[in-house]
Design a protein that fits this description.
Blueprint: H1 36-45, H2 56-62, H3 68-81, E1 89-97, E2 102-109, H4 116-123, H5 142-150, E3 151-162, E4 165-174, H6 175-180, E5 190-196, E6 199-202, H7 208-221, H8 227-232, E7 241-249, E8 259-260, E9 269-270, H9 283-288, H10 290-293, H11 298-303, E10 314-317, E11 320-321, E12 331-339, E13 352-359, E14 369-374, E15 377-383, E16 396-401, H12 418-438, H13 449-462, H14 465-479, E17 496-497, E18 516-517, H15 535-550
Parallel strand pairs: 1-10, 14-16, 17-18
Antiparallel strand pairs: 1-2, 2-7, 3-4, 3-7, 4-5, 5-6, 8-9, 10-11, 12-13, 13-16, 14-15
Helix pairs in contact: 2-5, 3-5
GO molecular function: ATP binding; ATP hydrolysis activity; endonuclease activity
Keywords: ATP-binding, Chromatin regulator, Coiled coil, DNA damage, DNA repair, Endonuclease, Hydrolase, Nuclease, Nucleotide-binding, Nucleus, RNA-mediated gene silencing
Subunit structure: Homodimer.
Amino acid sequence: MPVAMAGGSSGGGGGQVLDCRSFWKAGAYEAPAAPTHEFQDALETGDFDRARVHPKFLHTNATSHKWAFGAIAELLDNAVDEINNGATFIKVDKSINLKDNSPMLLFQDDGGGMDPEGVRRCMSLGFSTKKSKNLIGQYGNGFKTSTMRLGADAIVFTRAIRGSNVTLSIGLLSYTFLRRTMKDDIVVPMLDFKIQDGDIVPLVYGSQGDWDSSLKIILDWSPFSSKEELLQQFQDVGSHGTKVVVYNLWMNDDGLLELDFEDDDEDILLRDQGSGGATKGQKEIVQQHISHRLRFSLRAYTSILYLKKFDNFRIILRGKAVEQICITDELKFKKVVTYKPQAAHDSQVVPVKVDVGFAKEAPILGIFGMNVYHKNRLIMPFWKVLQEGSSRGRSVVGVLEANFIEPAHDKQDFERTPLFIRLEAKLRQIIVDFWKEKCHLIGYQPTDPHLRSQYKATLKDSGGPAQVHHKASSARRTRGLSSNLLPETYDDIAVVGLANNGSHLQSSGQAEENNMELEGLDEDLVEFGSGVLDSNFIEKLSEENIALFSR
């Protein structure tokens, strides 16, 4: 690459699109066999020694990303890896293709940029120079899979300073071009320029004819109509950095863009993401929780994408910086557990710290799961190592950085190795142990016999169920809290039923239909008809909840 092969009709650029705009169907086409004379020509020119990669592979390769946000995260990783080269931001925004007025997805950073050799490595398949233990990218495949998962075409603009040389490079990875011109090999046209005496002049590595041919392909099949328009894209790049524009974005089966730019001017949303099976009363809180919103909100997903908060780097989504969230800061009754992986005998084993606690919404919502990071990057958010349906482990959330296992190529899962299976078993045990030790702190019956005895003694001293009901009602009047310690802010959702035997606490005047049953809690929740925690504990827990919800 590049190969000077200018085919197809001109003038369409971004206006030339595939017949099928659905990603999952775009690879289903019959590829024509290459004419015999092409192999003969290749043999005579010496090009026969080079293995060919069919354009279908671009699509097949991109199917490793089942989730569009996973593809976006790959491009964010590239910018984060550039922090070592001085990068301070990555911009993600919507742009407009002036040829057909269609939306495009823009990524721009101020990292070190790529010189002509570097951009060719980036556009090649399976080539990576990232060998540092601290860098996220390692397979040399992320750029190709991510851009082709988001849209049919991508164009790269990059500017770099290497010593006294300042270079500007442009590369086009166009599935539309390859398909529409019936290519049987991946052709990536490239253009290079250099700064000479203050002027931008072409940098020709092959022949002038090859350079001109690459320019023609780029102008015919990109959103830009002239060399001047191409060079204008460098005006806001600065002295060094990279800009990636993905266009001809994929659509869903209804003919709508997979990415939604319209519903929120400060976010990019995913269509076709349901809200799950929450009850009517829970729905409002569930939809606002990060574990739900990350599935369809890019802002929510990127807020927890990196474990450590950046000191001098920002992710700017549609003009507004993303506020990073540390999941461990959102937990209550936290505990730190140390896990020592059983790695190979000849490998250095580093103990892993596992932060575990209850979600601040506990026990109202059954949000639970482990958030597993690798080299600072989130791989598995809210991973449910315990089966759903049981109250055991409910509302328990954990965080760990598992650098001792390798992620899958799409960085949304881990390779299913024996080491990973042992980790899964250990995390399951950590959650169960934490639950047994702490579940009474969020209103469940203690599992420990000693705590259970104290619990019964508290009930006896309280004067029975009637006195319990009076205390709870009094707490609600004086503190604005229901028996489950929800603040008045959520009164419109309902008061939570906490009894097993048909009775449940209600606010005076609250309609029957506004009661919200806690699904899956019946077997272990504290029953107001048969027991309650003492008043000192309720006071402490009330203050804890007020502080959390105020923050």
